[in-house]
Design brief:
Strand order of the largest sheet: 1-2-3-4-5-6-7-8-9-10-11-12-13-14-15-16
Distance between the termini: 18 Å
Strand content: 15-25%
Structural class: alpha/beta
Shape: globular
Radius of gyration: 30 Å
């Protein structure tokens, strides 16, 4: 669900010299950046006109539209004209008359009648309005009944209302001839996604948006978050796009958050531009696709949200940047399996959200540092290769993190025997009534049972988590599937399960069904062998609205009594999955992506 601009996009047409009227300037080439050169010329010509003159142009243009197919355009255009405080009565009458005709063509007789009566109040001798009134058999003496009038809220009140709407509804409001349309546009384009060197349509769309930012200061002033994606590790010729981006960035006066996912070289060019402009960024997310280089970080000192995901490289530059922003950072996400936890580079007591993927070496006291100092932590996610004995540290601080709402502990590998690890984590979690999300996963339930204590006692703490809404887990080896579901808190709305050893999927899900919580809206199955996805949902999870099998998402619907699955496009799942999950009431089903700034 990318936020798409509506640019009147193009380069300003050059003015012709007054002295060359006799000799027409030859048209050199149509190979211009924006093929809609006529649209751009119309925009450029009208840009210098007054509001009243623009209204004249708009009224003239509306006269050429087909009423049956253009009602929305006419509604928006007329509303724009009527919003001009000094609009002459003749133009107001003309605008309302056009809208009345469009409404009559659409069968909206009440709205048309209101416009016709307004025209007759402005121009009592308007023959066309009188004829329309007579033709449709409405008496001018009969008072209007405003049964469906829009509440007369102030713009500020409407804005507060619209802030509660998901992006999908905001897009619908763009077509409404009301102040709501402007508010929805401002909110939608607070975040802009640019896909450079992607397939042709996306690349052209990104270039159009950059042009709009450069040429339209009002549009640019609404952008608060910018996300830039360049796919893969290959070398793409994106010099043109990065040049446009360098010109656009200074225009984004309200910019606060930036995400870059691209090669080191391109990322450094963008960061260097960001460093030279005066914007005060508070959020920065970096995901180098060729994660083996060494990036020189900008000298930002007010970053509150920082995310860095890579597969290689040294820690020096990153840790120096963390120290530089030590007192400001509240949200931190670091992913690099080769790195250990940077206890000395960050202020854990200032953090509210911590997401770390890396290695905890044999002598690590990082768990103790997090648990003892993370008093303000609301969200803690640890995905790790474990080499230390962590159970003692969890036992030592079992009553810590009083404000914890989201907790994840996922082992990606381990080189230690710690039979008390998961029992200690279970005691740490037991009775936390404020916990809303829980993730406990291991690479192998068999070996985790033998070496780490991942057994039925861990699953047994679930009933004490009365506010739990999301559960992601590997089912312990010694817990039967049917029994396990009855232990899941009844308020859980999103459930994700990781397969054990190879199982018969249909038999497994049929055992789960009886004990599933009734509010369940989302089901995720990982590493299961699934031949017929619709049959799996029908057999085990007919109540859900969203299903995820490994990396594939589906919307679940029932048509004529049968389950139908609609697969999500890859662009939606890769860049905007959380927003679409929110549309179906499943926003807490998955961990927040660091590119979705708080």
């Amino acid at each position: 669900m990318h936020h798409r601009a509506h640019p009147g996009l193009g380069l300003s047409s050059a003015s012709s010299s007054s002295g060359s009227a006799q000799t027409p300037t030859p048209i050199r080439s149509m190979n211009v950046f924006n093929p809609k050169i006529l649209d751009a010329s119309v925009r450029d010509v009208t840009a210098g006109l007054s509001d009243l003159q623009k209204a004249d142009v708009l009224l003239y243009a509306m006269g050429h539209l087909e009423l049956e197919r253009s009602r929305t355009l006419i509604e928006n255009a007329v509303q724009s004209c009527l919003s001009i405080s000094r609009l002459p009565a003749a133009n107001a009458a003309k605008a309302r008359l056009m809208r009345a005709k469009a409404r009559l063509a659409a069968g909206l007789r009440v709205g048309a009648r209101q416009d016709i009566q307004a025209v007759l109040e402005l121009q009592p001798d308007n023959l066309e309005a009188a004829a329309l009134m007579a033709e449709h058999g409405v008496s001018t003496d009969k008072p209007l009944a405003h049964t469906h009038a829009t509440p007369g809220f102030s713009t500020e009140i409407w804005r507060e209302i619209v802030l509660w709407l998901p992006p999908r509804d905001l897009k619908s409001l763009l077509q409404v001839p009301h102040v709501l349309s402007r508010i929805a546009s401002e909110l939608l384009f607070r975040r802009i996604d640019l896909h450079l060197a992607s397939e042709k349509r996306e690349s052209q769309r990104s270039a159009d948006i950059l042009t709009r930012i450069i040429t339209d200061p009002s549009f640019a002033s609404h952008v608060r978050t910018l996300r830039v994606f360049v796919p893969g590790r290959e070398t793409f010729p994106i010099t043109f796009h990065t040049g446009m981006l360098a010109n656009a960035l200074p225009k984004l006066t309200s910019l606060r958050n930036v995400h870059c996912s691209m090669r080191w070289k391109d990322m450094y060019s963008i960061l260097r531009v960001l460093e030279t402009i005066s914007h005060r960024l508070t959020g920065l997310s970096l995901m180098p696709s060729d994660g083996t280089g060494e990036l020189r970080f900008p000298r930002f000192k007010h970053i509150m949200q920082f995310s860095y995901h890579s597969t290689g490289g040294a820690t020096t530059q990153v840790y120096d940047f963390l120290v530089q922003n030590k007192s400001c950072i509240r949200y931190l996400s670091l992913h690099n399996l080769n790195w250990s936890f940077p206890s000395d580079a960050i202020s854990i007591r200032h953090l509210t959200n911590l997401d770390f993927q890396g290695t905890f070496p044999a002598d690590s006291r990082a768990f103790a540092d997090i648990l003892s100092n993370g008093h303000q932590l609301e969200s803690l996610r640890l995905e790790c290769i474990l080499e230390c004995t962590a159970s003692k540290q969890f036992r030592e601080f079992s009553n810590s993190l009083p404000f914890l709402h989201h907790f994840a502990f996922s082992l990606m590998g381990y080189r230690v025997n710690d039979h008390d690890l998961f029992p200690a984590i279970g005691d740490f979690l037991k009775g936390r009534n404020a916990l809303r999300s829980l993730q406990l996963t291991v690479p192998s339930a068999d070996w985790a049972l033998k070496r780490l204590g991942y057994d039925a006692t861990v699953w047994g703490i679930l009933p004490s988590l009365t506010s739990l809404r999301t559960l992601t887990a590997t089912l312990p080896k010694d817990v039967a599937a049917a029994v396990a579901m009855w232990l899941v808190p009844r308020g859980v709305q999103a459930l994700s399960l990781q397969a054990l050893t190879p199982v018969n999927t249909m038999e497994f899900v049929s055992q789960l069904r009886a004990g599933l919580p009734s509010p369940l809206k989302y089901i995720g199955l990982s590493q299961f062998h699934i031949e017929d996805a619709a049959a799996v949902i029908e057999q085990g999870f007919p109540m859900v609205r969203i299903a995820r099998f490994d990396d594939d998402y589906f919307t679940v619907a029932r048509v004529n009594g049968k389950i139908k699955l609609e697969e999500w496009p890859k662009g939606r799942t890769q860049y905007n999955a959380r927003e679409w999950l929110e549309c179906y009431g499943c926003e807490e089903a998955e961990w927040r992506d660091p590119t979705q700034f708080l």
